[in-house]
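User: quick one, sequence for these tokens?
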């Protein structure tokens, strides 16, 4: 078999509104391979707002690799009126690789005012793997 550069779409993943003065809204998603290791070499992620109201701070982070927790910086996707699509290069010393799964955590911190905004998070992942490998996305909402 041959290793091939492939792409996989992620989303839309719903992220609920975080009401001012309330608790943060969060969700997570896991990418699981169909049985072989894979390496993510690129990840484009975008947050599409559902209403024209002010939002809280929306962030994404790498949270687990093969079921083991990791500590990784939060990356900003939106804040207030601004949406910031990101081309992420996420690494842990080199290319991010997994023998089974990678999980990401999305969170929206409440805005100081307004009614709150829900988002749809979409992305495209570029990965290297055996050409028979497929990725499966599972969404976990609290």
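Assistant:
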């Amino acid at each position: 078999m041959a290793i091939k550069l492939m792409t996989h779409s992620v989303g839309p993943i719903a992220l609920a509104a975080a009401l001012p003065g309330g608790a943060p809204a969060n969700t997570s998603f896991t990418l699981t391979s169909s049985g072989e290791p894979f390496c993510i070499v690129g990840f484009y992620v975008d947050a599409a707002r559902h209403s024209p109201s002010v939002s809280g701070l929306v962030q994404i982070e790498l949270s687990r690799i093969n079921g083991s927790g990791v500590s990784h910086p939060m990356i900003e996707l939106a804040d207030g009126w601004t949406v910031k699509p990101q081309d992420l290069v996420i690494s842990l010393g080199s290319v991010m690789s997994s023998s089974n799964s990678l999980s990401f955590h999305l969170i929206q911190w409440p805005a100081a005012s307004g009614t709150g905004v829900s988002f749809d998070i979409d992305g495209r992942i570029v990965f290297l793997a055996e050409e028979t490998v497929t990725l499966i996305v599972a969404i976990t909402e609290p």
